[in-house]
């Protein structure tokens, strides 16, 4: 009677009909091929979206430095970015002959840019400025001549060259040409280097030249190796890797086209993080599905029926997981940083695509391939399902069950110890600390600081539509400003460059903004002002978005499990994992890796990925536990779930951790830090929290874990 009643009910469910359609004997070929062919057609025919980058894309909306940068964009095109050419003696001081030749070089370099004179900044204040405040009133080879500023220690000289602004590629081309010319014009015994805002922008663009291709190749290689180790099959790993690889390329096209259509900003790191997430999430979903499919092949003769059952059993967990991650990613749309909003939208598209390919294309492809794809360990009907007993995780579960309270206390102590690094964390990276490798612009800036006043290469910029002379006088009279000059004007806008004392730059910036508050449309920008505003904006984002992510994850788990206690505990465990990973990573950063601070954006992004992805593994565990509890009770259901899912979830966690560690391929500190924290956090979540803490909590609470439901 039960069978007759159940079978029609199952056939009536839409999820069952969909699973049968995707894996049917007559439909599987079409389901496997049609989406792939459509995806390839879109990738080839449409390609990735394009958007003209803006100088404010990486700056927070509504902040003073952002408004100043936007005002700079209204200046004539040829006066909006500058490069500093630094000449240093290879040994000792510059000779009179070298200074004379550098004077000619400075004049020629000035003509290669948009400034005919190669105007240079002053070293000590208004008394050295010429009639326009554009540079020192100097002459003769001993003084460097027009356009050249020698250092007081006699070992270096510099000239400022104005370059036409434009896209990152265009600026990089201009800086590359300038570096070539500076090397050619430098006399024997003198080294030429280019720094300043334009050079930093060019070097940042160079970081991503071919970097996403390298990242994709390394990611695919890591996934391939781990899949081979997991499946121990020379064939099986190719199927999920191929499906996820196509999903990744399609996700890049879909995400960039959507962002271009909505005019949402993105940068070079967006598609790199997108690829890592698609490979990580897509392969995790594939591991879960294939593991269940292999078990069902031992229970059912028809591979089509086995896949339909496996798909029905895993689709709820995968859809719940993907929905949780997507909702978490979409909270980044509330960020004040345009590129952060772009990252959230792009990654949300990527997770949707990864889940779709894992639940549609992958099942059909595996069914088409047949059982032989598992060779040499082909599952046969009647074989014992190894997930039920005899696994390492079955033995782990038995040990946890003996003293679950002790396991809870021990894991919490471990996480607390790892979290102790939180108290020492410093946020905010200087411009020189953004790169893992020192590019020429940073090395030249550090060398320049040895012979010239600090801040000369990247002065604080005041942009105004008010009276430029009055603004200049106000800037000069502000405590903490060592020198200032008018560096450009046009279209009713005046630009004042100010060199700040290094003693209290933050205080000087606040005083400067207060002093200029009475002037119309006057803003303070430049690298230091932008960094200050970025720290404030990142704090605002954390206060708004972090609680929202927790609420969304909590509500999603409550709806999935139709419980209260379990969702609250699961959210608390992933928060504990995040805190422990962040604290432990800080010790790693300040020790072997040698970082002095975290980038301001890292805590938010790490929280998002760790909470959303960490909940994934808990979803996989507890949904199976709820299923098993109907037969074995709450205690037995959790132990069975740990035995059945332990291997696949651990494999998925290790794979995801390794994939995020691959972000270190891109030579940016922010991505290396983000990858390290997520890698460590995923390993903690997989090996400690999901394996020990969550089962122990469920065993301690029993049926109360599922309150107000009683799944048994």
Automatic annotation (TrEMBL):
Bias kind Polar residues: ranges: 112-131
Membrane topology summary: Multi-pass membrane protein
Membrane spanning residue stretches: 27-46, 215-233, 272-290, 317-337, 343-369, 405-429, 543-561, 568-589, 601-621, 642-668, 674-701
Protein name in UniProt: RND superfamily putative drug exporter
Major subcellular site: membrane
Region (Disordered): 110-151
GO cellular component: plasma membrane
Family per record: Belongs to the resistance-nodulation-cell division (RND) (TC 2.A.6) family. MmpL subfamily.
Residues in SSD domain copies: 250-368, 571-699
Keyword NAD appears in the UniProt entry: no
Keyword Mitochondrion: no
Pfam families: MMPL
Highest taxon, organism lineage: Bacteria
Source organism of this protein record: Nocardioides panaciterrulae
This protein's UniProt keywords: Cell membrane, Membrane, Transmembrane, Transmembrane helix
Subcellular location: Cell membrane
